[in-house]
Amino acid sequence: MLRSIAGTPRVLLILTLLLAACSNDARPKDGGRSFRLGLIPGAQEFVDFVMERHGILDQFGLKAEKVKSLSPANLHLMLAERKVDIGFGGFTTMATARTEGKDITVIYGVFSPVNMVFVPKDSSIRSLTDLKGKKLGVFGGPGSTTFAFLAVLARNWYGIDLFHDSELVTAPGPALIELLGKGDLDAALLGTTESIQMFAQQRYRVLVDLSAEYKAHQGGRAPAHVTVATNEEFAKSRPDVVRDYLKAYKTTLEYIRAHREVWDEFAKSIHMDNPEQRALLEEKMGPNLVENWDADQIAVQKDYLKLVHDIIGESVLKVIPEDLIRDEYIP
Fold first, then answer.
1. CA distances (Å), 269 to each of 10, 49, 262, 287, in order?
2. pLDDT at 32 over 90
3. Which residue of 73, 188, 293, 322 has the smallest Cβ count within 10 Å?
């Protein structure tokens, strides 16, 4: 009975239409407004944390499928290989990827460094010049964007090539803190969270605050070392998503300025319970958030890339890429 019914052309046509309808129902109902967002846990997540917690991305009809990586290098590779559509990437690393033929573009700045270099309180090291021949711990390794920023400062204003004149030791921030305490390191460049914690605890002496040092020599704004990046293929095919994501991003920055309690909310989420450390998180990180991706900020970014190329180009950036920095998606 069933075989004879199923064998008729009319029933076959009905079954075909039903299958097509089911297939259509399985498609995303967001109108293609979802995208893959690459993140690194920690301080870089701050703006995204506020955006999600307070439903700001929803206001613009977007849905982020979050891809998190504990390693900046892995996230940078995912950006370069289009495994994520939009992500937070190191500025100089994005520039290097562009020179290697990847269609990476930088469309906004996240923040300038909140990182610091620490030495023991009784250390004889008084400036970056004194790091010659010393053991320097680096939380992200010599290939990291933050170390490149430090290397530019050291070479341009203190005459020391950290790539060759210091012994570099790569390890996670907590390990570097302990190595410094044991005397196994002479100095350590720490991540954002560890820098704030050590500054608050006053366990070690600050040798240099990266953004403050840059501003002291250059004046005005510091460049964003963490940036929002995408790839040209995604941006050209979904310019509405890229543009609306940046609208949501800017709206989130405005929300942060108007609602200071978000700093405590974020501090709690990363288990920063000490009140002094929480206050320092806002004090140190707040002024370094990039508010505008305008002509002035883009000029700062380009000037910084030229410094990187001219000063440590052989180690980091041999060629300044064309069309890396974009502003056509700014709302």
1. 60, 9, 11, 21
2. no
3. 322
Q: Over the Cα atoms of the chain, what is R_g? A: 24
Structure tokens at 325: 């920095």
Domain-located, residue 29: no
Residue ending a domain, among 218, 233, 267, is 218
More confident residue, 313 or 260: 260
* Tokens 């060759």, residue located: 164
**Nearest Cα to 143, choosing from 92, 70, 190?**
92
Closest CA relative to residue 108, chosen from 125, 91, 124, 126: 91
Other CB atoms closer than 10 Å to residue 238's CB: what's the count? 18
* Residue 85 Cα to chain centre, angstroms: 14
pLDDT per position as a tens digit, 70-83: 888 899 999 999 99
Nearest to 280, CA basis, from 43, 40, 41, 39: 43
Instruction: Domain of residue 298: give its range.
Output: 34-112+223-312
pLDDT in tens, 79-131: 999 999 999 999 999 999 999 999 999 999 999 999 999 999 999 999 999 99
**13 Cβ neighbours under 8 A, 6+ residues apart:** none
pTM of the model: 0.87
